[in-house]
Amino acid sequence: MLLGSLAAIGGVAAAGSLAGCASPTAAADGVRELAFWHLLSGGDGINMAGLVEDVNALDHGYHATQTVLAWGAPYYTKLAMASVGGRAPDTAIMHASRIAGYAPGGLLDPWDLDLLAEFDVTEQDFLPRVWEKGGLDGTQFSIALDSHPFVMFYNTDIAEQAGVLGSDGQLAPIEDADQFLEVARAMQGVTGKHGLSYGYLGDGAQMWRLFYTLYKQHDAEFDLSGTRAEVDTDAAVESLEYIQTLLDGTICAPDGDYGTAVAEFMSGESGMFFTGVWELPTAKNAGIPFDAMPIPTLFGTPAAYADSHAFTLPHQSDPDPEQRRATYRFVADILQSSFAWAEAGHIPAYQPVVQSPEYQDLVPQAHYAPAAEILNYDPEAWFTGSGSDFQSYFLETVQNVYLDGADPAEGFGAFVRRVDVQLSKPNPV
């Protein structure tokens, strides 16, 4: 994902002040001042700033001010400290994959679904997988703004020259792992360099996204609910062996990093690109002919790694009812205005937007939107999720499997042992 930094984007409050004191603030004209924290920077941050400006202009009785904090551990640490210290913002974006580490410690307040429904936002407006990820033990602790899955971009000109483009102008269906290799090699024959761009070197997140996509395509479970990880080693080994096949220097560079993969695909030196939906603006700016789709089902079960940006209510010991009501209205307005978020690449979680004729006319967004129906979040534990150390453990133990052709069973076994160490520890939050 985009790396964050302490930033100010048009109306964003200085991060150092950690704006968001829990005491309600209402101007003389009755407009509630809302503190909104998030970790969205770069293009995402600019788009969110525009969304906030748009909903503020609706004059719905609030004015939201953004505070942008550094992506990853710094953000989540500050959010926890604010909740414990009584200076929580009115609402904050978290990755849905992090809820399991925060809600049990009392750092998040639950959503009042009846109040949310007053603003025309209900469970029925979300895909089941996306809605359920925001809940814990029957209580809803987050409301998803989007899903951002790992998908496949492809160059339509290269695909056509390789003879793998269908009559509808989209990539012809790929039915299995062997056929994907054939398609990738056909595209390499056109580019003369690589058929597929995929960068991972030094990047545990990129390594995990592809591995977990293929692992879940085996219909394999990765259960962290006990004191030891319950995994499917055969599925893991087969997934890693397939990744090694891709990283042969012809289909894909054996040692590329993420930036190199982006540059290669955007310059037309490869036919396909494994990445997240957040690279849509990059592809548009590059001016290449392209489309995008869910990563093909190579091992039987449709599946894609994903996460969601989700609205939370950081804990307040005595929230003001009118302040909370204004917060709910703000979140509902953002969800219902999230077509602009879709234009930037993310798949809106609020389904009335996805089902609208305007969204269905968006290409390639409408072509990869089905990935939201097959998404898989990180295994649930206090130490997993975007911006956590979990994916770093995968990097530390498995990178040699990708880079040097090390034994997949040994690498994955080392990863599971590292995870078991964390499972033996209590949640520190």
Task: Please provide a written account of the structure.
- The protein has 429 residues and is an alpha+beta fold.
- It is 40% helix and 16% strand.
- The chain is built from 18 helices and 17 strands.
- It has helices spanning 42-56, 73-84, 99-102, 113-117, 128-133, 156-161, 177-191, 204-217, 233-246, 258-266, 280-286, 321-336, 339-343, 351-354, 357-360, 365-368, 390-403, 408-423, and strands at residues 32-38, 62-68, 91-95, 108-109, 135-136, 139-140, 143-144, 146-155, 196-197, 222-223, 230-231, 272-276, 290-294, 304-307, 309-314, 347-348, 375-376.
- The strands form four sheets. Strands 8, 9, 12, 13, 14, 16 and 17 form a seven-stranded mixed beta sheet that branches. Strands 1, 2, 3, 4, 7 and 15 form a six-stranded mixed beta sheet that branches. It has a two-stranded antiparallel sheet with strand order 5-6.
- The longest helix has 16 residues, at 321-336.
- It starts with 31 loop residues before the first strand and ends in a 6-residue tail after the last helix.
- Residues 1-24 have low confidence and may be disordered.
